[in-house]
From TrEMBL:
Residues 169-245 form the Signal transduction histidine kinase internal region domain. It comes from Niabella digestorum. This is Histidine kinase. The keyword Calcium does not apply. It holds the Pfam family His_kinase. PANTHER family: SENSOR HISTIDINE KINASE YPDA. Keywords: Kinase, Membrane, Transferase, Transmembrane, Transmembrane helix. InterPro entries: Bact_2-comp_sensor_kinase (IPR050640), HATPase_C_sf (IPR036890), Sig_transdc_His_kin_internal (IPR010559). The chain crosses the membrane at residues 49-68, 88-105, 125-148. Signal peptide: none annotated. GO terms for molecular function: kinase activity. It comes from the Bacteria.
Length: 354
């Protein structure tokens, strides 16, 4: 069932229940008086039934209007005036205005009068008590409903985030166990063993660090930039060793950004994409620049596409963007100039993380 249909059904059924609850005392009192003092009452039964039906219908409409107002979260704009019902004080003000309007209409339609003999002042007293309680009851039910919907949405967002994060981690892990990647890594290790055993050990250590960090990140929606950079440096050392110094990476990270957060393996993913789609050779070394500024970190690489392009699913950037959408309702920015491919990632603070 769609959200709008679900809300309509909720409002219709809840208004019916509220109308029944607040009409029942009137009926009970009328029956009590009819039973005990029936001989003194001249009004016929049919007119009383009609009166109760009208009161019930009116109570139903009032409940429906208040429920609809308090379950609608949106922004209305009339010229330069904006009304945002997401804000509690705006809803409170609208409810007060609507209450005054309903009270005025009710009195002018004589809805405050009951089909039972009663002192006029007591009619007004019961009417105000009944209307006030009905409105408060509507507000209470609407807020409970919206709280439940919000919790459901948070749960859904968490599930989507976990799925996107798992897919991103899986994609990164798949790249690292790709036969081509493993073949190149083993070739690099083999070539280093006889020439520089210490470098071979370091390469194996970096390879182990990369795998460990990917596996550890499966259950973390975000990590600090400092942690991400530690993992990235291990990966960069491997890539620079493998490409014989033809990969030139500049890290320009401001110290006060190190305690900010971002999804795990984000920077590694962007570096992987740059190496995957661009030529890295003695003739054309590839430059990658990673720098933080303000509330963002950007990764940019020179555009020098390979002659034989490797297939791309596009899942990496898509999943990364999905993670940002569900963590903080922000998006990554992708720019392409004549010489550079640039991806800008928001740096998150603890309060930005939902």
């Amino acid at each position: 069932m769609s959200t709008s249909k679900e809300k309509i059904l909720f409002c219709l059924l809840s208004a019916l229940g509220i109308a029944f609850i607040f009409s029942l005392p009137r009926v009970v009192i009328a029956l009590y008086i009819q039973f005990n003092y029936g001989n003194n009452i001249s009004a016929d039964t049919q007119s009383k039934i009609i009166d109760h039906a009208i009161k019930f219908s009116y109570t139903y409409v009032v409940a429906l209007v208040f429920l609809w107002l308090n379950t609608t979260r949106k922004t209305w704009q009339y010229y330069s005036i904006k009304i945002n019902t997401h804000k509690f004080y705006i809803r409170l003000l609208l409810n007060i205005i609507l209450f005054i309007a309903v009270r005025y209409i009710s009195i002018n339609l004589n809805m405050h009068l009951a089909a039972i003999p009663m002192v006029p002042k007591f009619h007004f007293f019961l009417f105000h008590i009944s209307l006030t309680l009905e409105v408060l009851f509507c507000l209470f039910i609407a807020e409970i409903y919206m709280l439940i919907k919000r919790n459901q949405q948070i749960s859904l967002n968490n599930e989507i985030l976990l799925k996107s994060h798992a897919e991103a981690s899986y994609e990164a892990l798949k790249n690292q166990i790709n036969p081509h990647f493993l073949f190149n890594s083993f070739n690099t290790i083999q070539s280093l063993i006889d020439v520089n055993s210490q470098a071979a050990k370091q390469f194996i250590s970096n390879l182990s660090t990369v795998y460990r960090n990917i596996l550890n990140s499966f259950h973390k929606p975000v990590i600090s930039l400092n942690e991400e950079l530690q993992s990235l440096r291990a990966y960069l050392d491997m890539m620079q060793e493998r490409h014989n110094g033809n990969l030139q990476v500049t890290l320009n990270i401001q110290r006060h950004h190190l305690d900010k957060f971002l999804p795990p393996i984000s920077l590694q993913l962007l570096v992987e994409n740059a190496i995957k789609h661009n030529e890295v050779s003695n003739r054309r070394p590839l430059t990658i620049i990673i720098e933080s500024e303000d509330k963002y970190i950007q990764v940019k690489n020179q555009l020098q596409p390979k002659k034989t392009a490797e297939p791309s699913t596009g899942k990496g950037l898509y999943n990364l963007n999905q993670q940002y959408q569900h963590i903080c309702n922000q998006s990554i920015q992708i720019r392409k100039t004549g010489e550079w491919f640039i991806v800008i990632l928001p740096l998150l603070q603890q309060q930005n993380i939902s």
